[in-house]
Write a structure and sequence with these properties.
By secondary structure, the chain is of the alpha/beta class. It is 39% helix and 22% strand. It contains ten helices and eleven strands. The strands form three sheets. Strands 3, 4, 5, 6, 9, 10 and 11 form a seven-stranded mixed sheet that branches. It has a two-stranded antiparallel ribbon with strand order 1-2. Strands 7-8 form a two-stranded parallel sheet. α2 crosses α3. The chain is globular and about 70 Å long.
């Protein structure tokens, strides 16, 4: 007799973890709440321990549940990747491709590229995950990733498009009111927009702005789309991609000789998808479409591996 838990139990477990309650998981899965509860109870019996603690405030995952979480997420990702891969016949540009990109790239750069791709291949569907987190393509949480860091995993096909140039920008209304800083040191007297956390990029940016620290920023938010919206609204001075700012005549670059920062732009997909026409078509369309908004540093060239 096969005693291995059904796949449905793991799917339900992952949904309860993600949604935080039986009722919310039931709505997402299209099940009844009692069915979700039975699934959790059956999985608890199978693994030999409690997965959630019940209280008036809802469900809290136990240490056992948190230990199982990454494995359940991998199963969900693999199942979704399997269905995407099987959603079209070989040689046919149809089916679903899942792309992950940073929030700004997904918002400001990808829509026209994807619109053109859809017109070219009307049977193609795109799942777009807008997140600044770096997802592991080896776990197939996405098929293609657009990244600002060089991939280090060997089982990937990667293409470096160039760099996204960053600069300091402010709305003209703000500059009319507060004046234009003449040096990096003058920024301390202005309303600055930046990240709330001290990640690698945030530390690198602060390193290029000597004399400033997080306490000098009037608006600190880790969402880069919100930072961009605040610059456009005239809140203060913040960092913006040069290519994006060039579309808005009301945004003016500040201290172009004093601050410049380059972010590398990579398109990456799993090696196993290289021979699939559907994924290759999307990969090539992203390379072509996004390549217009980047610059190549002196002496460099695109790399494919």
């Amino acid at each position: 007799m096969n005693t291995e838990p059904s796949w449905d139990l793991y799917r339900t477990f992952a949904a309860v973890l993600r949604e935080g309650s039986l009722s919310a998981a039931a709505r997402v899965l299209g099940l009844t709440q009692p069915s979700v509860a039975r699934h959790i109870e059956a999985l608890e019996q199978a693994v030999g321990g409690t997965l959630f603690l019940r209280s008036q405030r809802g469900l809290s995952p136990t240490d056992r549940a948190l230990a199982l979480k990454p494995y359940a997420e991998d199963m969900i990702a693999t199942s979704a990747a399997l269905l995407r891969t099987a959603s079209a016949n070989r040689g046919e540009i149809a089916g679903t491709v899942r792309i992950t990109a940073s929030e700004v790239v997904a918002t400001e750069h990808l829509p026209p590229v994807l619109a053109s791709l859809r017109r070219r291949h009307p049977r193609l569907s795109i799942e777009l995950m807008a997140s600044d987190a770096i997802d592991d393509l080896l776990q197939r949480r996405a098929d293609i990733a657009i990244r600002m860091v060089e991939p280090t995993q060997q089982a990937l096909v990667a293409r470096k498009l160039g760099v996204l140039q960053l600069g300091l920008y402010a709305h003209r209304d703000y500059l009319d009111l507060r004046g234009i800083p003449g040096s990096i040191a003058d920024l301390i007297d202005h309303d600055l927009i930046g990240a709330d956390s001290s990640g690698n990029l945030s530390r690198a940016v602060l390193g290029a702005l000597p004399g400033l620290d997080h306490a000098n920023f009037a608006l600190r938010v880790d969402n880069t789309v919100v930072q961009l919206a605040a610059i456009r609204a005239g809140f203060g001075i913040g960092i913006c991609q040069v290519a994006i700012a060039a579309r808005d005549a009301m945004l003016e670059r500040i201290l172009p000789d004093g601050f410049a920062f380059d972010l590398p732009l990579w398109i990456v997909m799993h090696e196993g998808l290289r021979s699939n026409e559907r994924y290759r078509a999307v990969f090539d369309a992203l390379v072509e479409g996004l390549g217009h908004g980047v610059s190549m540093p002196t002496g460099s060239s695109p790399v494919a591996r």
